[in-house]
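Data's thin. Show one?
=====
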Amino acid sequence: MLNFFSKRNILRPIKPQKDISKFEFTALIAALLALNALTIDIMLPALPDIAASLRLSNANDAQLVISSYLFGVGISMLFFGPISDRFGRRAPLYFGFTIYILTSLAAIIAPSFAMLLLVRFVQGLGTAAFRVVAIAVVRDSYSGRAMAEIMSLTYMIFMIVPILAPGVGQIILFAGDWKLIFLFVAMIGIITGVWAYFRLPETLDKADQRPFTLQSVLGGFKIVLSNKFATLYAIVPMFMFGALLGFLNSSQQIFVEIYDFGVYFPVAFAGIALAMAIAAYLNSRMVGHFGMRRIAHFAILIFVMSSILLFLFSLFGEIHIVIFYSLILVCLFMFSWISANTNSLAMQPLGKVAGTAAAAFGFIQTIGATAIGMIIGRMFNQTIIPLAIGFSLVGIACLLLVLIAEKGKLFGSDEE
């Protein structure tokens, strides 16, 4: 009984925010992270229209609308982290909103595919502020399992966006062409930016501000990357997000070209996103009892077994939609458990340089995941095999990283 209450005490925040409730705090953090998901997922139904409108010779090239954006996000994180550790969390966030809104409007008048990719890349440069600041604010305010709980609730809320975004994108396409989608995301950016301006408190204490000099910035990155345990755990979400992006890049082609879902593709996509949201909610309820390590390790093992099973089925020809959908559901259900807990484990020892840590890990995760996802997506050949191979290799890589970080031991307690 005493042990149980000692664990519950871990869930208390480091720095309770007096001006904002825990519910609104979680919702706002989720909204900041969800802008990334919205900017990706709402475009999925429009990829064939973009390819046709801009006369692309290879339909797979339309996937670059997603990849170019993510490369911008990854590169810019390196700058927003040290800046947020020096000037606070709010100012960099508003700068990011300005870029996001202006580029959303610029995409509407992009005269060519090359220019559209450039605008998307710049849009990603601004959007990086949302992720860096959101994660740093959570780390400023919470620690340990409490941080994992908040991150899980955040994932649960922002996973509503992938449930709705493709459907919203499809509805917009019924009303007009793909350019209207960018007008819609600009409006969402304005609404979220106003909300953050009036309600998000500054969570970085002046005493914790780091000088913005080359020596200080490099020193911060050295502190982060020299922590072997944190770095290994931060690379796990990179592989996981790479698998997710590989699925996102090819999902429209899989469900439409292989399984003939047509305009009902967003419905199939929403079912998967709903499963991921449920997984995130369950994680928030379980992490205080079982701990981050045990849940993450269990989820990785299930992910590996499910993805290998998907690969074995794919060797025998077209997989029945029920089998394919079920295995993908299991894999991405486990994704929610893996990503929330491994990110929290990676950030746990780096509270003094939370912004720099969020930036360094965000850069590694986004650039690496984008490259992995692009490779998996562009290997699409009207079969499930490339996706199944990608998921299997990613799962095995994550298991090896955790084994190295934990020195061969799985299912340890979070207090170790």
Observations:
- The first helix runs from residue 2 to 9.
